[in-house]
Amino acid sequence: MTGQREYPGHPIVGVGGVVISDGRALLIRRGSPPLVGQWSIPGGMLEVGETLLEGVRRELGEETGVEVRVLDLIEVFERIELDGGGKPRYHYVILDYLCEAVRGEPRAGSDVTAVAWATPAELERYSLTPTATRVILRAFEMGRQRGPASGKMR
């Protein structure tokens, strides 16, 4: 990816995927800023010429080693981090999708230092951002609404 993440000239489009399997969500620990060292939803920046769904599949494959089927849009939100002088250091517009694992065993890849599966009751122990927690809980609800056929590892 070319371009500048820190102090960008314009907002950057990010994509993420919440993989639900057997009542658990796949989480990653970020290995680079922003949110370095924190648990989060797998995802990253959309590349030029790539569709949103292609970006979700690529990012989850790179970060977790899991091939996914992208199901539904969960939420669109912004992440803006200001520096000490009030200037936007990071500005992302992020689209998170509900995903179904198709194949692959989760492993830390790309800029990820660890992966974990968590039930809704276990999310608190990962100190996720309020936004990530909200998105993951919404994904669990969407998965329940889709029925038992979704969210199963194949």
Low-confidence runs (pLDDT<50, min 5 residues)? none
Count of DSSP-assigned helices: 2
Task: From the alpha carbons, calculate the radius of gyration and give it in angstroms.
Answer: 15 Å
Mean pLDDT: 93
The N- to C-terminal Cα distance equals 31 Å
**Overall spatial form:** globular
Order of helices and strands: EEEEHEEEH
Structural class: alpha+beta
Helix % is 10-25%
Let me know the largest β-sheet: 7 strands, mixed
Fraction of residues in β-strands? 35-45%
Instruction: Give the beta-strand count.
Output: 7
Task: Give your account of this protein's structure.
This protein is an alpha+beta fold and about 150 residues long. The chain has helices at about 50-65, 130-145; strands at about 10-20, 25-30, 40, 45, 65-80, 90-105, 110-120. The model has no long low-confidence stretch (mean pLDDT about 95).
What keywords describe this structure?
154 residues; alpha+beta; seven-stranded mixed β-sheet; 40% strand
Brief digest:
The chain has helices spanning 52-64, 130-146; strands at residues 12-21, 24-30, 39-40, 43-45, 67-82, 88-103, 112-118.
In terms of topology, how is this protein built?
Elements: E1 12-21, E2 24-30, E3 39-40, E4 43-45, H1 52-64, E5 67-82, E6 88-103, E7 112-118, H2 130-146
Parallel strand pairs: 1-6
Antiparallel strand pairs: 1-2, 1-4, 2-3, 2-7, 5-6
